Structure formats: C-alpha cells, structure tokens
Amino acid sequence: MSEYILPEVWENPASMGGAWGGLNQPTAGSRFEQSLPVGEADFQLYSLGTPNGIKATIMFEELKELGVDVSYDLYKIAIGDGDQFGSDFVAINPNSKIPAMFDQTGEERVRVFESPSILLYLADKYGKLIPKDFAKRTEVMNWLFWQTGAAPFLGGGFGHFFHYAPEKIEYAINRFAMEAKRQLDLLDKELATKTYITGEDYTIADIAIWSWYGRLAQDKIWDRAGIFLNVKEYKNLQRWTAQIAERPAVKRGLEVEYKEIK
C-alpha cells in the first residue's frame, strides 16, 4: 500500500470504496423528493434496527411496560439505500441520520431527531426512566452525553475500520480498538459497584449505552468484533448486559416490525 500524500486542499474522490463509500458526500441536505407515510399513532418514528435506532423502539416499549398509553408507527429508513437523504426525512432531521420522529399529540407537530434527544424528550414528556431529583438527573445526563460522545469512536472509528473499510489498516484498527477497549473497561469498572450505570435504577442512560455496548458485549455488532475485543473479560459489563437483555420491553424493542416507506 503506497503512502497517502496529503494534497494542499482536499477534494471529494471519485470513489471511496467500502460499504458506505457510494453514499457519503461532503454536503448536507436532501438529494431527492420523497413522501414519507404518516399514520394515526401518537408518534411517527422513522428508523432502522441499528444501535442508534433500537434506542427509540426500546424506549417506546419500556414506556408501554410502565403503563404509559403511548402509540407509535414505525417506518423503515433503509440507510444502505439512501432513504435518509429524501426530502421528507431531511425535513425531520437535517443531519440525515436515524432515528427521527415527530410527536403529533399536540396542536402542532414537534420534530425530534438524534437518539439521545428522543430518549430525553420521551422521558421528560411522560416522567419516566429519568429521576426527578436534580442531582440524580444530572448523573443520568452525564452518562447519556458520555454515550453520545463516546460511541462515534466505537462505531465510526473501530467499527468502520474493523468491518466496513475497503482495506484493513493496522494503525487505524489498533488506534480505535484501543479506545474501544478503554471504553469497555470504563463501563466494567463503573458497573462493579452499581446495578445500573447511574445506580440502582434503570434509566434512559442504560438504554442508550446498552444499545451500543451491551450489543457489543453480546457480540451482535460487526461480525466477530466481540471476539476480537475479548468482550467476555468484562464480567461486570456482561452481568449488566444480560440483565437488561432479559427485560420484556427490550426484547420487544428488538423484535418490532418496520413498515416499508415505498
């Protein structure tokens, strides 16, 4: 492999290669006209069963489990096909990422995009899975924002170079595997003295973190990534992962059916 010579000014290459090379562009905004279906349920959720996407479906199912009368229509945004760049979806999330939804329970629709924002919106709207006590709420926010900041190093960093990149680059894989291991070790140490990530209560922080790191601990993201990272050595993380995986709402959130948009 020849050494990459940095140009003075970067230009978009004709072809990036890899699983996502044909979709990624250096510009934002919609790329084609699109009409998304809209149902009658309280919430219209446009998503996919990715680590970010399952946060929303698990949250809805957890609310139902807690007795909240809430309904949602779930539509499949096939990101591999570029559905996220259609005009209707971009109108909900200008960043073109799933999940995105709107709340149609009020007089005006409210758009909500980015998975942690959806979790927090629903938790606050229904007063569930987030403490009322200010200090305890702040601890939940600490971990919710930790996941928001940490996961790109796991997914866009380790996951990309380990699984999606068109060629295996040793330096990149080592760099991000080291960071992934550091994050796993952090969670394992935190969970040594706590039932859940913020203490004894299950919250939206657990949903956010489990959807990435719990699934990785189960070796259910990127083929053999869990083996590569030796996730079984993190005993406290494994205990927490298994405990959450047994929750009925989590099981339903993973098994929900997506409606086609076209």
Automatic annotation (TrEMBL):
Residues 40-130 form the GST N-terminal domain. This is GST-like protein. Residues 133-262 form the GST C-terminal domain. NCBIfam families: PRK11752.1 (NF008731). Gene3D superfamilies: 1.20.1050.10, Glutaredoxin (3.40.30.10). It comes from Streptococcus henryi.
